[in-house]
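Is glycine placement plausible here? Inputs below.
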Amino acid sequence: MYGIIATWRMALEGISEAETMLEHDASAADALETAIRAVEDFEYYKSVGYGGLPNEDEEVELDAAFMDGDTLSIGAVGAIKDFANPVSVARCLSKEPVNNFLVGAGAEKYAHKHGFERKNMLTDRARTHYHNRLVEENQKASQDRELKPYAGHDTVGMVALDQQGSMAAATSTSGLFMKKAGRLGDSPVIGSGLYVDSEVGGASATGLGEDLMKGCISYEIVRRMKEGMTPQEACESAVAELDEKLKKKRSKAGDLSLIAMNNKGEWGCATNIKGFSFAVATENLKPTVYLVQFDENGKQYFEEASEEWMDNYMKTRTAPLIWK
Ligand code: GLY
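Reply from A.M.:
I modeled the complex. Tokens:
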């Protein structure tokens, strides 16, 4: 059995490529890195890689992580600037004996030394978003100004299983739009943004990093799978419990969306928001995008994205932007 699952529709092209690789016996790690790089390279996705939205100083700072489920090796970069594929730098770091999590200038020095491609990651389109957001924020009263993960788009997080039973997980993100310089969310933080153990399975998160980290939620989902839960049971129970706890202790919960796969290729997803999508492919399932819906009792279910939804998605992403 092999498979790959990822947060958001934006992962579809990447996981399709990865699925072909897995079918031809590629490793989970290679397939996953290929899939995440495809998202990083597509300039119309404004929360990952090239075209990602900048921080409040108009600089694109990217976070990424990689974990090998066979060895538990970890690598991560935080607030890295001007490198095309942070996930590849993270994977390279996972092969180091120590110094696996580097941020800012240290991460850039390492990436440069190891020959990774340099690139100015701020596009004209992202600059227009930045400008328009400033115009919109300046029109609001100061108490209404709030940072939120960019609607409908956030971290790409993935878990993959190959035919040898090896698993890997990885994330990549530009984090919150208009974040403070140097701000890190959950995505590069092992246990929060991702976790994988080939003896059990893996999980990865998207949403508000500050709240996802309060539950170390990816580790928590893997822990629940280890205790016997299916990926779906683990995702649903962990998301519901963290959502409830945050509301009880802090009166509100940020966006929490999780995907998971176990070492049998079974998968699951849970979210506390409307409009979440994810993409999955296994030996028995062609690459498919699902939308998470809620019934009248608040119980979530998955619906395959229609052709119309898919067309509309790409049209919206690539529509011309007007400088306000
Ligand atoms: N989940 C991405 C972030 O909070 O940066």
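Short version: The longest strand covers residues 285-294.
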